[in-house]
Design a protein that fits this description.
This protein is mostly helical. It is built from 15 helices and two strands. It has a two-stranded antiparallel ribbon.
Amino acid sequence: MTPEQQERPASGTGPKREGVGRRTVVLRRGGLSLRFDVRTLAVCAVLAAACLLVALVSLASGDFTLSLPQVVTAIFDGGDFAHTVVVEWRMPRILAALVFGAALAVSGAIFQSLTRNFLASPDIIGFSTGSYTGALVVIIVIGGSYLEVAAGALVGGMATAAVVFLLTARRSLQGFRLIVVGIAVSAMLASLNTWMMLRAELDVAMTAAVWGAGTLNGIGWQQTGTACLAVAVLLVLLGQLVRPLRQLEMGDDAARSLGVPAEPVRLGLVLIGVALVATVSAAAGPITFVALAAPQIARRLTKTSGLSLAPAALLGALLLSASDYAAQHALSTALPVGVVTVVIGGCYLAWMLVHEARKRL
């Protein structure tokens, strides 16, 4: 065999390796070395710029219209009415949209990576509905504060995840069975939620129904600050499990051979994913389809086959902030942001199913 034949790989043999042929940037400082994919960095930069633009436009839009330079001035000038409008009234909402969108997208990326199925997002497999159920119990039965609603959403989401996991009758979250079981549990919980609202007092039921559509109306610095702090803590915890999650994508046996305790890591990832959804649900209600669409669109933009948390988070932030802007200003009547995300996500899900069906023909 000639040296040229030895260097040339056989046609059609061997798996494709992620990252081969892609441009990367390596940063070295001291004994540390970080490698970044150029395309992923470019996509993240564009998405971050788009998020900033949407945020500024949202801060400038409304009954009290401002120009973009006036918005920037109002943020740092605390002595006039424009500062009150921008910082006290509008900024909590746009910050919540950015952070909540990122949290939902990261949660969706976690579950899609664990199950290796693009349908495995928290709103499809019932975890979002379970969080909504837990919050409804607190709102209707107890009438608790925001922190109590948040605790109820967290307990409801965790309980739903436990039920779905047990009903799959497996020690793994992989497989299409999880999707089917999750959809069934979600349908039953949705019926329970409807029954609870029908039995509640009229004013409480109306408040719960509007909140249940997924809305950022009336959100202030208290809810935004508490939720952002919780999301930040969860993302820091997730950072400790990103590398094991990438190794789990290769399979449990391969991960264990590299020293990864598969089941404890998977349990920790599930808890973080559900907690992210519960945090958002407690503050804004069950906002659907962002967790489904954002990780998949981000993966297509970066053209990577593995986990892409940063692009998914930025795309989720962009989707939710842009949807909230459309919900406020696209029509003469302001809508809950969940109505817009349902329309966008429903169209994307239909396209995805058609696309996957054509690939199998």
